[in-house]
Design goal:
3-stranded antiparallel β-sheet; Phage tail sheath protein; Phage_sheath_subtilisin
């Protein structure tokens, strides 16, 4: 008789998991005037998020909100209907007149956005992540990127401006390795931190960059989750582990929907 089909599907999904986990999809939410020749969503070609790590992200999509939009609700509504892995909002740290905003205002907007990510993961069963600046969300779905004054040959970036690069790197990191100590070749320097300062940042759920004396690298690849509870321990702090768990979750959900629900009786009334 052979094995039930659902087990076969699970085995097939497992065989391809590493391949499917090599690259993820990144979404950029932008506020701007939509070019007349485009419509949402826009597939991007050459931007920072495309650099990736060992490989570029599988796909980079931009959703353009109106320049005077009060929030990101239009983009958020659309994103609940498509498949993606990481989202960033490059302009979340910019004032309406295009200047860098205060860290407090940036954190406030990022916190509001993080609330949506938490809702997607907890109440809508959509396992996605956001890279946000200075956002201590205490959630495995939010990467709290906290390095400012990131110096490259052409520009010095704030944390908010550099989030797209971080999202691309995470999406381009295969599930077989971690982004911990991943080098950023374009970065010349970042604020120098002593080891105890770096350790404190990591323990606080901050993803940071550091200069090891020769190159600039990502420190331990952690998300913002810090408050462990029963059945949700330290493993949930690691970006790689959460990526793997999300892939497993999606495999099980897809297999159930495609190969079980509606195809077998669930009662005998």
């Amino acid at each position: 008789m052979g094995e039930p089909s659902i087990q076969i599907v699970f085995k097939q999904a497992g065989i391809t998991a590493i391949k499917r986990g090599e690259r993820g999809a990144v979404v950029l939410i932008l506020k701007d005037t939509m070019p007349a020749t485009y419509s949402n969503p826009i597939k991007m070609e050459t931007i920072d998020a495309m650099i990736g790590y060992q490989k570029p992200p599988k796909q980079v999509i931009a959703y353009i909100e109106k320049a005077d939009a009060a929030d990101y609700s239009e983009a958020q509504s659309y994103l609940e209907t498509i498949k993606w892995d990481y989202v960033v909002v490059p302009g979340i740290g910019i004032t309406v007149d295009g200047k860098p905003d205060t860290e407090a205002n940036t954190t406030s907007r990022a916190t509001d956005f993080a609330t949506w990510i938490k809702q997607l993961r907890s109440t809508k069963d959509i396992k996605v992540k956001a890279v946000l600046p200075h956002c201590p969300a205490d959630n495995e779905g939010v990467i709290n990127f906290c390095t400012d004054d990131i110096k490259t040959a052409n520009k010095t970036y704030t944390a908010a401006e550099y989030c797209s690069r971080i999202a691309g790197m995470l999406a381009g990191t295969p599930l077989t390795i971690s982004a911990t100590f991943a080098p950023l070749a374009e970065v010349i320097d970042v604020p120098h931190l002593k080891k105890e300062e770096r350790d404190a940042a990591v323990d606080a759920g901050k993803l940071i960059l550091f200069n090891d004396g020769k190159k600039v690298k990502i420190d331990r690849a952690v998300n913002s989750f810090v408050t462990t509870i029963e059945n949700k321990g330290d493993d949930f702090k690691k970006i790689k582990i959460v990526d793997i768990m999300d892939l497993i979750h999606d495999d099980i959900k897809t297999t159930a929907e495609d190969s079980y629900i509606g195809k077998y009786p669930n009662d005998y009334d």
